[in-house]
Design a protein that fits this description.
single chain, alpha/beta, globular
Amino acid sequence: MMHPILRFIFVLLLVIKPLTAAADNTILILGDSLSAAYGLKQEQGWVKLLQDKYDEKDQSVYLVNASISGETTGGALRRLDALLSEFEPTHVLIELGGNDGLRGFPIKRLQTNLRDLITKSQQIGAKTAVMEVQIPPNYGPRYTKLFTDSFKTIADETDSELMPFFMLSIAGRPELMQNDNLHPNADAQPLIRDFMYKTINDWLD
């Protein structure tokens, strides 16, 4: 397990632009390996590519990538207070739950953690979005359905944006996946960037 101080330093290294940069929208991204550029260089990941696109278009959007490979909703919850205090985001995007599901965590725990992540973010005035993460069907139809349905349930309950999962159009294409067949490769990152560019812009509008 990564020491808390090392985790914090790691998060700081993932900040896309200088902390002094002024932006109308500061988006804190709480994600797992899918957003942390697992197996790739940071500059190849979709978050950095998306920041570059915002910069090229002179859009006042500042992305803080607080994603960590292997992260769970519980792990993010333990880090959240410090992140909110440090970056004061106007928006918080939650791309988490996949590792909870892959480890078979109870659905109620998943929902409670998502709810708490959103509530804490909203308490500082941030707008919130939760991605409808999906897991492989081999966990059984009942668990899989309860898992997927949890994201809409919590989004509706907390008046948060429900975002579609960016892996839906990627995971079924072997040429876009790394050898582990779990993580998108470098060729997939621009596709995810473009998907998230539209999705986040719709949210901001």
